[in-house]
């Protein structure tokens, strides 16, 4: 495919990803309004803790949009492999903010357990919270699907955060409904406390994923299987061997480095044709990637030794 067409496709993909982030931002604003209304009307600390998490969603979506724009910048003299890792900074910021929010939620919950307050007009608060949950569910599913399709860690992280928020809100709704039915007011702060620990775990998971990404973690298992499947089929059809296969995921970008050992009698030009065919085959197998193919004569042992069989 000509370079102009590849660039045009990437620009179109970038615009689509940014639209998804704007969708997340819009959903977060509406959700915050609904949950704050529920908290204000009822005086429930459970609803309040849920609203605090949605505020974090909004901040994370804004940071995610910035990261997407930065990651789309082309390679330059200081960033030869582009800016794709910027998406991991978004996940780090989101994870850090979630940890802060969890501490605030847990603190507020403990204070309410020590100093109980009645919850009022629960029916109206539940209606607002249900509406916010439906909205988050729809947007969260859309973001996760788009994140997997376009290999965007930003969309994937934001989508999973929204889905976590959905389950959190479901728990709050069930708990507040139980308060409404039983009249046991202590259930409200206990629910909020559970929400706080759930949010704490979510933040830890996002930070762990972002750190692994910054450490140039290998390709996801499903992509590795596709890559190895192609290399196995190539070996079966041609008189070559592969060694020192290394991979790394940089946000949406992929880097593959490998050595192909060819018969010593092959010309440089013929070996180069095979190197090009290998690059094209890898792109077809796992999608657009930066592939570095080093050609060596058969039987030559690299200093690093064979890393793949």
Explain this structure.
By secondary structure, this protein is mainly α. It is built from 8 helices and 3 strands. Helix 8 (268-286) links the parallel strand 2 (253-262) and strand 3 (290-297). The chain is elongated, with a radius of gyration of 25 Å. Mean pLDDT is 80; it is low at 303-309.
Draw up the topology in text:
Layout: H1 3-42, H2 45-71, H3 86-114, H4 122-149, H5 153-182, H6 187-214, H7 221-237, E1 241-250, E2 253-262, H8 268-286, E3 290-297
Parallel strand pairs: 2-3
Antiparallel strand pairs: 1-2
Subcellular location: Membrane
Pfam family, one: Cation_efflux
Domain Cation efflux protein cytoplasmic: 219-297
Question: Strands of the biggest beta sheet: in what spatial order?
Answer: 1-2-3
Proportion of residues in helical segments: over 70%
- The portion of residues forming beta strands comes to 5-15%
Alpha-beta classification = mainly alpha
- Major sheet characteristics: 3 strands, mixed
Distance between the termini: 31 Å
Low-confidence stretches: 303-309
Mean pLDDT: 80
Count the beta strands.
3
* Rg, Å, rounded: 25 Å
What labels describe this entry?
mainly alpha; 309 residues; 9% strand; 71% helix
Structure, briefly:
InterPro entries: Cation_efflux (IPR002524), Cation_efflux_CTD (IPR027470), Cation_efflux_CTD_sf (IPR036837), Cation_efflux_TM (IPR058533), Cation_efflux_TMD_sf (IPR027469), CDF_Transporter (IPR050291). This protein has eight helices and three strands, in the order H-H-H-H-H-H-H-E-E-H-E.
